[in-house]
Amino acid sequence: MQEMVKGSNVALAALSENAGSVIVSLSWVSPTGEGDADVSVLLLNADGKVRSDSDFYFYNNPVSADGSVQLLGKTPTGSGDEDRISFDLTAVPSDIDRIVVAASRYERAGFGELEDLRVTLADGGGECLLSFAIDDAGTVSAIIFGELYRRGEEWKFRAVGQGYGSGLAGLATDFGVDIDDDAGAEEESHGDEDGGQEDTAAPPTAVEQAPQVTPGLVPTPRPPGDEAKPAKAARPRTAKKKVTMPRGVRKSLAENENWREARLFPVPALKSDRERELRATSVLLSVMAQVPEFGRRLLAPFGAPAGRMETFTEVSLPHGDTPRRPDGVIRVERAGKLWTALVETKTNGNGVKVEQVQAYVDIAARRGYEAVITLTNDVALEGSPLVEAKIDGRRKHKVAVRHLSWAEVTHQAQMLIRHEGVGDKAHAWLLEELLHYLQHENSGCHGFQNMGSAWVPVRNGIDDETLCQGDPRILDVIESWERLIRQICLSLGGELGQKVLPVQRAKRGADPKVRRTLMADQFCLDGRLQAELRIEGAPGILAICADLRTGKLRTSIEIPASEQGYPLTRAKRLVRRLAEAPADLHIETLVEGEGGGPRGTLERLRPEPADLLPKNNGARITGFRLSLLKSMGSSRGNAESGFIRSVDDAVRRFHTGVVVHLDRPAPRRAAAQEGAGAG
Hints:
This protein has helices at residues 167-174, 181-189, 206-209, 273-290, 292-299, 354-367, 406-420, 425-439, 455-463, 472-496, 512-526, 567-577, 602-605, 643-657, 668-678; strands at residues 2-4, 9-11, 21-29, 38-44, 56-57, 69-76, 81-88, 98-104, 115-122, 128-134, 142-151, 154-164, 308-313, 328-334, 337-345, 371-376, 400-405, 500-502, 528-535, 542-547, 552-560, 586-591, 599-601, 621-631. The protein has 679 residues and is α+β, with helices and mostly antiparallel strands. Strands 18-19-20-21-24-22-23 form a seven-stranded antiparallel sheet. A hairpin with a 4-residue loop joins strand 20 (542-547) and strand 21 (552-560). The N and C termini lie far apart (57 Å). The model is unreliable at 181-240 and 667-679 (pLDDT under 50).
């Protein structure tokens, strides 16, 4: 991998023969665990300007019609976040000379508050070709990380690192994007950490979700909305509204509830694991080929271009004396070039076999296939490939081994048909049928469902205090816990239509393996599995603690106290907001300089909110900690009393019963102005 310095450039063809499609990744680390930024892309002509506002891609305009640009969204890394963008350089219009890749912060925050700002570029096979680190960001709120540009018939990359003190509005104006004065004013005075997503106080409709075309705009982070006055923000539009499926249950014409609606993909007759694998593969691949938005979303992270896709099942391929039959084959054609991948599918918790994947890698290398994709209920972890396949370095053609979980497939289907929309009603209906199939109890596509063989002996070792640090089984449990948390993020995010990401504190280090080792040592000492989730739009971080010694699950959130009003007024308002929360919710007052303040259950505090106030009248209340406790399941698998089910249920109960009733975070600048006006 080539390390670049500011101002340097390199021809992509000199680094890889597979640079027709590339993945550009922007990453950063927040020391506090809460800082973030949004990426944006501008397509520029020979004059250095966008042809129109539609050449400006950001969180609310993520995909180009020709498939040349696709914002893939954020994924958690060992120490922060990584935002990825897929470019099909063969599909970029000929009148585009330059592609600018930038990022911006909101609430006038500066990039100097973030660490390890970096842009990397990988080729279509997933091999990282170059990296550029920005170490002089300072107080600027927008930065051009790098740019792709043409020189004759080839594409080159330049490391830029140019900052804009005027933020995203200034950057966009420089490149010819029309700025609406009102929108620009909003950017200065508003913003939240939602990254511009909808307020979930009311589910977005298809019309609300559809971007709409107006000249003169700039993407602005949405302010946290007052429920009575939803926030408004300018955004780009497309000429055609997208279709989302209604969330409510349609009125049925059936005579009684025992009638079953006819489904495109029936599941009740499936009896064996082999039948489930064949059906699941065929159902998924057929929908991917028929719904371009869905197929691109699943394959773009693997380097696949946007183009005509065909999918096949049970293809016989020669391999020595015994032909191999992968579960599926994907072929994508773009500009006369083919991108191909073999697919190996497992359902019902079955794992892929190393020798099987290795055989497919060898076949793919000989036949010029770009990737081997495994698809199982397991969730891959950063820095820990699901299958260690050997890649023959002597071969000129390189094969990437990629993994998808059924939870990821379900998440992307939910995002499209529930929140973002697809091109037409037929595509929406196909995705709805796919989602119904995946979520059916008999499909075998239910995601991560087993904590593994190490779970019971490790839990017993915690109970009888015989577990020792360094026991490899502890690390297995830590990895299973991380898989569970990542799956919960996918599931909850798909239902909410919001980003839900696990928080990785910078103090734990950037290396995933080192971080897991530290977590394993701590778990051996205190018997607690802990995780934190950042839910877009929530007023704080949702913390999860599974205490194996007490058998209790704790879900909690810390919310800051308002600077306005008297302490008793704040306490009363909090109790009123939680009128529909569970009566057993624990509320603890956080007091500056003290280990803990007054606490009690919501049931006891409803008639007496003053009990939340500290005895010392001069003590400053900094916030409140809200917690729910429940007993956790004992089994490692998917039984009713299972640990996985109990953690999932606890997170959902806490979010629906507590988090949704809390105030969204207020923009700091707006709060300061309001305070100044009051004075």
